[in-house]
Amino acid sequence: ALGLASRPLVHLVFGAGLGAAAELLTVVAWALPGAVASMLLGIVIAAWRAQRRSLAWLAATLVLALTLELAWIPGAGAAGAARAVVLAHGFGAAGNLVIALTAGRGAA
User: Fold this and answer.
1) C-alpha separations of 100 from 1, 26, 70, 90, 91 in Å
2) Which of 55, 57, 74, 102 counts the highest number of beta carbons within 10 A?
3) Which three-class secondary structure state does DSSP give residue 36?
4) Torsion angle, CA of 46/52/54/57, rounded to 10 degrees?
């Protein structure tokens, strides 16, 4: 749905001069599920007091994001940055899911 609405949305918000940003918006939109999942899983992680593990995973996610951006931006520009953001958010959410699922083990 966002793919169909991205061009009119970018035109409405930013003007016709940034129409090329519509393609990037459709790519970056795929980062939203990972970002939302990480936020929701953060509640579970906090409830189990596993924030240190989550913080360590966040640091690994940051290193991944920076590495991908340094590798992909020179060749692909903004499209490379958009793909790096999507992949990093997915990586972060996957790690937080594992942390949330294993944090309560051993608790009675």
Assistant:
1) 31, 29, 30, 15, 14
2) 57
3) helix
4) 180
Put residue 94 in one of left, alpha, beta given phi > 0 → left and psi -120 to 50 → alpha: alpha
Residues 6+ apart with CB under 8 A from 78: 24
Report yes or no: 2 and 26 within 8 Å, Cβ to Cβ.
yes
Chain-centre distance for alpha carbon 15? 26
For the stretch 46-61, pLDDT in tens is 999 999 999 999 999 9
Residue with tokens 């949330």: 100
How many Cα atoms are found within 13 Å in the side-chain-facing hemisphere of 35? 7
State the pTM of this model: 0.85
Helix (H) or strand (E) holding 88: helix 78-103
* Helices 78-103, 51-76: crossing angle, 10 deg rounding: 160
Dig out the tokens for 100 from the structure.
């949330």
